[in-house]
Amino acid sequence: MEYPELAARTRRFTRGAPRAVTVASDGSRVVFLRSPGPEDGAEALWVLDVETAAERLIAEPAGLLADDRGDLPAEERALRERLRLSVSGIGSYAMDPAARVAAFPLGGRLFRADLVSGDVTEVATTGPVVDPRPDPTGRRIAYVTSGNLHVIHADGTDALLAGEEGDVTWGLAEFIAAEELDRYRGYWWAPDGRSILAARVDESRVPRWHLHDPARPEVAPTSVAYPYAGAANAEVTLHLLDLDGGWVDVHWDRETYPYLVSVHWAEGGPLITVLRRLQQHGLVLSVDPRTGETQVQAELADPRWVEPVLGTPSHLPDGRVLVGGELAHDGYDARCLFADGTLLTPPSLYVRRVVGRMSAGAGAGSPDLLVEASEGEPSEQHLFRVRTAIGAGGAEIRPLTTAPGWHAGAVGGDVLVVGSASLDRAGTHWTVWRAGKQIAGIASHAAKPPYAPRPLLERVADRRLPAAVLYPRNHVTGRRLPVLLDVYGGPGHQEVLATRARWLERQWWADAGFAVVTVDNRGTPGVAPSFEKVIHRRVADVVLTDQVDALAALAGKHPDLDLDRVAIRGWSFGGWLAGLAVLRRPEIFRCGIAGAPVTDWRLYDTAYTERYLGLPSENADVYAHHSLVELAAEPVRDDARPLLLIHGLADDNVVAAHTLRLSAALLASGRPHSVIPLTGATHMTSGGVGEQLLRLELDFIRRNL
After folding, report:
1. Residue 470 near residue 454, CB atoms below 8 Å
2. What's the first-to-final CA gap in the chain, in angstroms?
3. Is the pLDDT reported for residue 596 higher than 70?
């Protein structure tokens, strides 16, 4: 069986692998999701007991429901789309900090699992369940149904905590928060379990778009609130709700700071981060849970845009407020952590996420922080221990992983769980550590890929752009190869990583007779804030210039790259970049494949688009300069190159109108192109559709190179 079939059947070799790993606050248990085998997507809930290193199955879909497919509430389907989560079974869970109780939805029904005894019971609810969460004491469970927030008490009483009809929801993240701001939740329990901080989302002003799959004319169009660039966003407010009916509004200048980016509530009271619409200024606010009044704890500012660090803000045990952001003065160019404004991590450390607190050991003071960060090499991520108590010599930083690759972590008490992926072996390997010693591993049942990819990772051009080249495994030096530039290139995402999974599909392309090239241009994370933010208001010029310059630099090092035969392919932002390359630089790119491309940025969402391009009303020329539709309408050159456009007709993120409008413009100007509409597919093209397209794409490129 060849790669496309294997990848489709194994969900790109991830079925059977552990994921969603969390650790009890006392380090006693490690909780995770995993499906039974390499071709079974029905994920089950598991616990690893740290003391015995034994795994226990807590809940599996087959034992709870006959069939959970097709029964997901619309809100749950939308949440999974925002999370890019294409699994069946138990897709998510939430637990109390001590990992005694977990709650999870399955087929719209609510289940409660006792993680100590292993007992699982279904809990009666008033409707299909979304995002159930136990309170920190484990006695109650909150959930959302039909946009209303409910709480189930220990005696089984189901109480409506907050709800309205119409375009208002309670306890859910709005589209912008989940798609662009990394906030997927809409409510947060108080540490004592007696109240909830809940978001109220009013979408009545947001434009309505109507999505319809033409292959199913019997089904009515779906209406979605979509805040396109320049349009009205949802109105988001926060409220403190006591379980006995008390209600306190949270006050901040919502007109100036409409985006609620993050909420954290542990000891010390709630902390929230809010941003201006263009995201050049933000505030970290503490909330008085008695009055709802807020106080500024930190300011975030950048003339381009601010980029808060995931896992911040939070209170340190000594009361200081931990904030993450850019350090861009006195010659520094870094992403760092600060405690009450004092620098906590060195500028050499590019901080990506604060995972949590680590026990500092017997006799020690404040607990340490577990941080995911890069140091020097953007293709790698490592775990670092950061001492929060600053001595005379500054904060103490200690690396916990050193092997090349990409390392993620979970922590609780004195237990650290490390997920490590590298170029040397397949998949992500999870190990459990206590007091610096490995005590267990979490088993993986994922299939092994049929080959090991061989990417050559390097930094090229004067800007030291991260890049990679893959040759066919049977390549003979001196044989010139057509080049496939396989790209993404957009903000917030890297492709050039030191992990084997990133290169499996690209090795298949290489083995089909190509030199495959991937470049992380400026605008992508991992290098430095200035590297990311130089694209502000000029995304197209910077990104395309970097890709072209990297190609030339790589050809200078790799003479077997034939730059007279170059194709480009990409999805989403990468689809836009592929279309841009073919239309603007046809002398370099002979053909392109644009999957789900953003062809007119005025049709894409507010938070993402305005962050980089500004408001359409103030920057009409910038939007026109970045529009593939307007570019396609320009007079056709003699070297016009063909484009293959692919789009899911059920895509609610980059709607199919993008591709349809580009196709119309290409047709009107006589430019060669083809369109593949994907019936019922969303932006994820789940269910193996992406793999099934590979041979059609291969045939298109071969014919045009």
Report:
1. yes
2. 27
3. yes
Domains of the chain: 1-123 (no CATH), 456-704 (3.40.50.1820)
* Residue 474 burial (10 A CB sphere; 0-12, 13-18, 19+): exposed
How many Cβ atoms sit within 10 Å of the Cβ of residue 311? 21
Q: In Å, how far are 13, 89, 609, 618, 629 from 132, measured between CA atoms? A: 29, 15, 32, 42, 43
Report the DSSP beta bridge partners of residue 191: none
Q: Which of 489, 685, 497 is nearest to 595 (CA)?
A: 685
Encode pLDDT of 39-51 as tens digits: 998 999 999 999 9
Q: Which pLDDT tens digit goes with each residue over 299-339?
A: 999 999 999 999 999 999 889 999 999 887 767 899 999 99
Q: Over the range 356-384, which residues count as b (16 or more CB within 10 Å of their CB) and which as e?
A: bbbbbeeeeebbbbbbbbbbebbbbbbbb
Give the predicted TM-score (pTM) of the model: 0.95
H-helix or E-strand spanning residue 180: helix 175-180
Distance CA 303, CA 281 (A): 8
Q: How far apart are CA 161 and CA 200, in angstroms?
A: 12
The pLDDT value given to residue 363: 44
CA distance 323 to 312: 5
* Residue 702 contacts residue 484 (beta carbons within 8 Å): no
Q: How confident is the model at residue 579 (pLDDT cuts 50, 70, 90)?
A: very high
CA distance 263 to 324: 14
CA gap 400, 397 in Å, rounded: 10
Residue among 596, 405, 571 at smallest CA distance from 493: 571
Q: Put residue 666 in one of left, alpha, beta given phi > 0 → left and psi -120 to 50 → alpha.
A: alpha
- The 3-class SS string of 645-681 reads EEEECCCCCCCCHHHHHHHHHHHHCCCCEEEEEECCC
Task: Count CB atoms within 10 A of the CB of residue 307.
Answer: 21
Tokens, residue 649: 């007709």
User: Above pLDDT 90, what percent of the chain?
Assistant: 86
Positions of E strands within 243-280: 247-249, 259-266, 269-275
Length of the chain as a residue count: 705
Q: Could you tell me where the beta strands, DSSP code E, fall in 153-217?
A: 158-162, 168-170, 187-189, 195-202, 208-211
The amino acid present at 555, given as its one-letter code, is A
